[in-house]
Amino acid sequence: MESNIPSLPFCPPPKDQKGENKIQFFDFTSLQKEGKVPKEFIWPSENWVKSSGEIIKLPLIDIGAIKSDEAAMSYAAEIVRKACIEHGAFEVTNIGVDSDFINDVLQETNNIFKLPLSKKISAIAKDSGFSVAHAERYTTVLPWKETFTFMFKHNTKNDTQVVDAIDSLLGEEFQQAGLVYQKYCNAMNELSEVIMELLAISLGVDRKHYQRFFEDAESMMRCNFYPPCSASLSGALGNGPHCDPISITILLQDQVGGLEIFADNKWLALPPKPNTLVINIGDTFMALTNGLYKSCLHRVLVSNKVERKSLTFFMNPRGDKIVSPPKELLGKDEARKYPDYKWLDLYKFTQKTRRVDAKTLDSFIAWRSSSQPSNSN
Ligand SMILES: C=C1C[C@]23C[C@H]1CC[C@H]2[C@]1(C)CCC[C@@](C)(C(=O)O)[C@H]1[C@@H]3C(=O)O
Ligand SMILES: O=C(O)CCC(=O)C(=O)O
Ligand SMILES: [Fe+2]
């Protein structure tokens, strides 16, 4: 079924006289009232092929416990290995922030998406700020969602980087939101280190290997808002089927649900659990394991009644780092599944050449070797 998912058209908006993109702005509030789904939001039917109606059961890792108990860590590594080989997803809890704080993060996210469209439009920036259905980048097969994005550098001395980013996007009256997101990203920084240790142990490589590789990681934090879609049987999707090109995604979803994972040859729902985050393996971590761990194929369905919010912390290596699996992971005559690449090159490919889908890494490698033969090592 996977291979039937067609790639998406990369149709950028037309340019105005100044060479700037002519953006079409969609106002989800009025679209909802009118019960309209414009044709730009209709996805080809292979993308919304039927859900199985079943729920996926993922290993749930207690982060507090594995940090302090080596036996708990070894057991967790074993079950995480199995899940990552099968479909590339597991869940974590007890991550060191309390449920009140998680509610605060979701509340700030709600406030941001309730801003008037004019304010959102003023905060559209390259690689950050608002996006309404990615319509500033594409004209067809748009996702039924709005996003708000900012960058986060790991382990820097700058402890106000997020506050400053929010200030420059939204203004100083959003300082409270900035402080909440700063604390959330700091927590994600710490959590990602434990996860990298867990993944290294699960793969049987030096337990600090991935922690070192990601010590100067440059991650992307994205808040997602999926408005209800009263005509949800129309072919609209919050996110079409895709694998994240990044290393790992740490996902916080509100209580609504809609995320589905492709495993056992079917689409399975992953309903939210309180105080639990989802970890998805992305293409770049798959490459760092020489293809042993699967990049998780997932999609987001929209509800016809309620809005949904989620936060995706996309963890990436520094842009110029070479993505290459550790030698100890490669069996004696084991062939390399993917050639070395720089994360920034894969990222640029997703922004300029090909829309993200279920086969992004393969298309990137094929594109690179056909357009720059010297890179095909
Ligand atoms: C490499 C990237 C492309 C996306 C942003 C980063 C990390 C994940 C990607 C994305 C979220 C995967 C789903 C589709 C996408 C277009 C989206 O819905 O936002 C992707 C991102 C993007 O191009 O903005
Ligand atoms: O909202 C979600 O649950 C997942 C979003 C997602 O897959 C993405 O942004 O890449
Ligand atoms: Fe995703």
Mean pLDDT metric: 94
Main beta-sheet strand count, sense and barrel state: 9 strands, mixed
> What's the gyration radius in Å?
20 Å
Percent range for β-strand residues: 15-25%
CATH architecture: Sandwich
Query: What separation lies between the terminal Cα atoms?
Result: 31 Å
Fold-level CATH name: Jelly Rolls
CATH class: Mainly Beta
Widest beta sheet: strand line-up: 1-2-11-8-13-6-5-4-3
How many domains comprise the coordinates? Answer: 1
Helix content: 25-40%
| H/E element sequence | HEHHEHHEEEHHHEEEEEEHEEEEHH
What would CATH call the homologous superfamily? B-lactam Antibiotic, Isopenicillin N Synthase, Chain
Number of alpha- plus pi-helical segments? 11
Kindly state the number of beta strands.
15
Shape from CA axes?
Answer: globular
Spans of 5+ residues with little confidence (pLDDT < 50)?
none
- Ligands bound to this protein structure: ligand L2PXNNRO, 2-oxoglutaric acid, fe (ii) ion
